[in-house]
Write a structure and sequence with these properties.
There is one protein chain. This protein is of the alpha/beta class. The relative contact order is 0.12.
Length: 309
């Protein structure tokens, strides 16, 4: 990796959470290649996020950036902790004097069917994904407001946008992140700050936990193994650069060499009556009228059925 003196992120400072492995690692390295100075945050915890953590993944990525001539610092705070989020933003301003972009990539998994899910399974995933994205974004907000510029990229997922089995906690967090991103875009637009969500398709440590107990699961996993995590990074870099300054409030997807723009919920059918509705009238008129447009119980794999390109 060689850093570029004229890269699209030259002079900017970027915080990448979950930057020690997988998608986050690729983003951190590409940000540095584009000229950014990078805070590589990674707790180094297990997939479930329930152990004491290990800073070495973040340190390894920071060392790789510096060995290539870039500037980086490793951070081991937890995004789920308000003070930890403040500290990682402070690390950026202390070391590099500013912060220009936040990439909320840190995550964990506690996959289990809804009727078997325990409270801790739900709380732990919401705390890292949704609360973590809020914590880190909020910590950077005063700096973005003062300098009248800034970019947020939050990792959502088709598990939330479309659906998947056994991921009520993860799906709720990821769809919540899409809404959080839109709210940030609306609230921060007056300060020239943009916010977007990206659904990454990539074979990572988290995706690698998917079971392979049935032929269908094995076929799905074989397809997912073709999804390269480093393919996500160029799009994230483009969103955070000056060329992406007019792009905000959107939901994207990146699947190897494919880039998607996702729809956002809008009314597609309406029913009206002058005298008000009764339950009986709704059952007789509204349900049959709407039924042709009801969404089936699709999972992500039912929608993205073709091989990655």
């Amino acid at each position: 990796m060689e850093t570029s003196l004229t890269g699209s992120m030259q002079g900017k400072v970027v915080l990448v959470t979950g930057g020690g492995r997988g998608v986050g690692r690729g983003i951190a390295l590409d940000m540095a290649k584009a000229g950014a100075r990078v805070v590589v945050n990674d707790l180094g915890a297990s997939l479930k996020g329930d152990d004491s953590g290990d800073l070495s993944p973040a340190q390894a990525v920071a060392a790789e950036i510096e060995a290539a001539g870039g500037e980086a610092v490793a951070d081991g705070n937890s995004v789920a902790d308000w003070d930890g989020a403040q500290a990682m933003v402070q690390a950026a301003t202390d070391r590099f004097g500013r912060i220009d972009a936040v990439v909320n990539n840190a995550g964990n998994l506690r996959d289990v069917l809804f009727h078997k899910m325990e409270e801790d399974d739900f709380d732990a995933v919401i705390a890292v994904h949704l609360k973590g994205a809020f914590n880190v974004s909020r910590a950077a907000a005063p700096h973005f407001k003062t300098q009248a510029s800034g970019a947020y990229v939050h990792m959502t997922s088709t598990s939330g946008l479309i659906g998947n089995f056994g991921q009520a906690n993860y799906s709720a967090a990821k769809l919540g992140i899409a809404a959080l991103s839109k709210s940030i875009a609306l609230d921060m637009a007056r300060f020239n700050v943009r916010s977007n969500a990206v659904a990454p398709f990539a074979w990572t440590r988290m995706v690698g936990s998917i079971p392979e107990d049935t032929p269908e699961q094995k076929r799905r996993v074989e397809g997912l193994k073709k999804l390269v995590p480093e393919k996500i990074a160029p799009f994230v870099v483009a969103l955070c650069g000056d060329a992406g300054a007019s792009v905000t409030g959107q939901i994207f997807g990146v699947r190897n060499n494919e880039i998607f723009l996702f729809s956002q919920p809008r009314p597609i059918r309406s029913a009206h009556t002058a005298g008000g509705w009764t339950p009986e009238a709704i059952a007789e008129r509204v349900f049959p009228m709407f039924e042709r447009d009801f969404y089936p119980l699709h999972r992500s794999g039912d929608v993205f059925t073709w091989d990655p390109v």
